[in-house]
Backbone:
């Protein structure tokens, strides 16, 4: 029972430590990269204001909106619409995932990215 | 195999199936996909403590297969199987080390499940940025694991040896 409590404490500390590490090392991003099935379909600089519909040629719709240096999925026709509910992101390394459409909006640029940290 | 243990295994798989279905009716993931209570793990932890480990492993794998066939897709099978296999390995090792109780085993299983699913998603979507989910899912998995662990400790204590 004592070991159980130690394990729980260790896991919570690990989560906190990892979160703090990720938080401290993230710079604001420079551009939003939209990928479908791992392939880049659009790259939008965060300095502009734009609404970009994605996926028309594949038979689905995710509207990616860039405004005020942030990006979000404004609207989507996926069943759960979790991508829309994930809201705005602005920092390097943050991402919005739409699993049903295999679409990922991620932010990169503006300093070292997570891969550089991991290396 | 005696017919009594066959019946028991069938019963446990059916119970795990019903718990999986119940859990799918109550979505806990509002903003962050992957947060869940892990009700079926109740059955797996119980089986781990009351049956031999290969039997418990079979129950876990059959549950995942049946749930994906009934309610899921090939993609959801990949996620569930990765979660179930890794979580079972971790739970089995911790249990056999003899140093942890039901709660510790269940907590480790829950976090291992989340970790394996994030890793699978990162592989399938080809993005490393899903590490952002881990701190959150680590906390939610720990909380869920404590609930399930305490419940299964209660079950193991109350239900007599078969």
Residues:
């Amino acid at each position: 029972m004592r070991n159980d409590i130690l394990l729980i404490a260790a896991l919570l500390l690990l989560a906190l430590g990892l979160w703090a590490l990720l938080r401290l090392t993230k710079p604001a991003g420079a551009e939003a990269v939209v990928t479908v099935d791992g392939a880049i379909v659009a790259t939008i600089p965060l300095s502009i204001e734009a609404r970009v519909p994605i996926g028309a040629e594949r038979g689905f719709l995710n509207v990616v909106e860039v405004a005020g240096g942030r990006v979000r999925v404004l609207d989507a026709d996926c069943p759960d619409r979790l991508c829309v509910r994930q809201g705005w992101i602005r920092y390097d390394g943050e991402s919005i995932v739409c699993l049903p459409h295999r679409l990922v909006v991620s932010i990169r640029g503006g300093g070292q990215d997570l891969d550089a940290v991991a290396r | 195999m005696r017919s009594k243990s066959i019946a028991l295994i069938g019963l446990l798989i059916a119970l795990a199936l019903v718990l999986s279905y119940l859990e799918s009716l109550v979505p806990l993931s509002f903003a962050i996909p992957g947060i869940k209570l892990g009700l079926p793990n109740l059955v797996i932890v119980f089986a781990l403590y009351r049956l031999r480990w290969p039997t418990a492993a079979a129950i876990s794998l059959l549950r995942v297969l049946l749930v994906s066939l009934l309610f899921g897709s090939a993609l959801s099978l990949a996620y569930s199987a990765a979660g179930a296999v890794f979580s079972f390995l971790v739970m089995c090792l911790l249990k056999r080390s003899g140093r942890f109780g039901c709660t510790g085993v269940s907590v480790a299983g829950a976090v291992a499940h989340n970790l394996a699913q994030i890793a699978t998603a990162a592989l399938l979507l080809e993005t490393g940025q899903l590490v952002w989910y881990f701190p959150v899912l680590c906390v939610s998995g720990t909380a869920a694991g404590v609930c399930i662990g305490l419940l299964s400790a209660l079950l193991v204590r109350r239900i007599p040896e078969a």
Q: What stands out?
A: Helices of chain B lie at 3-25, 40-50, 53-71, 74-97, 102-125, 133-158. The CA atoms of residues 122 and 130 of chain B lie 6 Å apart. Residues 133-158 of chain B form the longest helix (26 residues).
